[in-house]
Design a protein that fits this description.
One of its GO terms (molecular function) is guanyl-nucleotide exchange factor activity. The chain has 351 residues and is of the alpha+beta class. The protein contains 10 helices and 12 strands. A 5-stranded mixed sheet has the order 2-1-5-3-4, with helices on both faces. A 4-stranded antiparallel sheet has the order 6-7-8-9. A hairpin with a 5-residue loop joins β6 and β7.
């Protein structure tokens, strides 16, 4: 048996026991069951590969073929697919987990934005975690909790916005925070360093709409899925082949060079999954789709697509399971909102 450590978005950790021959899906399903998470396809488990790259655990491949020493690896439960409109997230727990991801990205500088937007996002986090504005409580909390790299310059602005949120519940604060986050230029974007055909340093990223080319945090080109005929990789070169009507205006195939073959292949796989999740009506069958398949690869997306998730949500009345949020003071007791087991302390027996 394998004893595998998973870290959740609130930084709590838990050991899960799976069979030696278990595929990635086995561990992922256990983590989702632990959270009572219904909309699980938006998430994934990330880990540091032997080559030092952050990669997603593949659902259909045995864990021992992906990780050399599984018991020594920390798997991080994270948001994998960012919908263009978080309003499509039906479950309060799902929105809460997205909020924790935004919180983590802000703290680590992975979600660059204006001071105004940063202060507004943190103010919604304070409303969720502390309750209504209280100047002394806010000051003490901000002095001991780091939400932003440059937080000390924004404390007054954060408190100014927090004062406006009086009466909002944690669930309402999540909705408002996600509405602010989705409008940010870098929302849901994970840059991957590369260089173009002229050797210029750029970043590649994949989103619901297609593949982006960025210089720093500025988008300089977008290749929508409708423009792309095929994505592939050859050694450490990532190739975008465009449809004929598009390539008449530029080169037929665009080539980008990444740090290594492993880095390139990992990004290609993320593109395959993003395309399937956001563009296909159902999970691809065993035979991979030609559009995004590199010759010889059997890799494919596994799970419900966003369309299936939304259709399921419309047809089925999902029963929200109780979960406990992480709060910092007892001032919230009278309107405590339930969040996740040890994130997530299970409260089902108390209800």
């Amino acid at each position: 048996m394998l004893h595998l450590k998973v870290q959740f978005l609130d930084d709590s950790q838990k050991i899960f026991v799976v069979d030696q021959k278990s595929c990635g899906k086995g561990l992922f399903n256990l983590t989702c069951s632990h959270l009572n998470l219904a909309e699980k396809e938006y998430f994934g488990l990330e880990f540091r590969s032997q080559a030092g790259n952050q990669v997603w655990l593949e659902p259909l491949k045995p864990i021992t073929k992906q990780v050399k020493n599984p018991k020594e690896v920390l798997f991080k439960f994270m948001v994998k697919f960012f919908p263009v409109d978080p309003g499509h997230l039906r479950e309060e727990l799902t929105r809460y987990l997205f909020t924790l991801q935004i919180k983590k990205d802000l703290a680590h500088g992975r979600l660059p934005c204006s001071d105004k937007s940063a202060a507004l996002l943190v103010s919604h986090l304070l409303q969720s975690e502390l309750g209504d504005f209280h100047e002394k409580t806010d000051q003490q909390h901000l002095a001991t909790h780091r939400y932003l790299p440059n937080q000390e310059y924004l404390d007054n602005k954060i408190m100014h916005y927090h004062r406006r949120h009086s009466g909002k519940t944690p669930a309402e604060s999540d909705v408002q925070l996600l509405d602010v986050a989705r409008k940010l230029e870098m929302y849901g974007i994970r840059p991957h360093p590369a260089s173009d055909g002229e050797g210029t340093q750029i970043n590649l990223a994949v989103t619901h709409m297609g593949v982006l080319v960025l210089r720093g945090n500025t988008k300089i080109n977008t290749f929508n899925w409708s423009k792309i005929r095929k994505l592939s990789f050859k050694r450490k070169h990532f190739l975008i082949k465009l449809h004929a009507n598009i390539s008449a205006l530029c080169k037929d195939t665009l080539e980008f060079t990444m740090a290594s073959r492993d880095t390139c292949k990992a990004f290609w796989k993320t593109c395959v999954e993003y395309h399937a999740f956001f563009r296909l009506s159902e999970e691809p069958k065993s035979k991979p789709k030609a559009l995004l398949c590199s010759k010889g690869s059997s890799f494919r997306y596994s799970g419900r697509t966003q369309r299936q998730l939304l259709e399921h949500g419309r047809k089925a009345k999902m029963k929200s399971l109780p979960f406990e949020r992480k709060h910092y003071t007892s001032r919230y007791d009278e309107r405590q909102c339930r969040s996740s087991p040890d994130l997530l302390t299970d409260v089902s027996k108390q209800v």
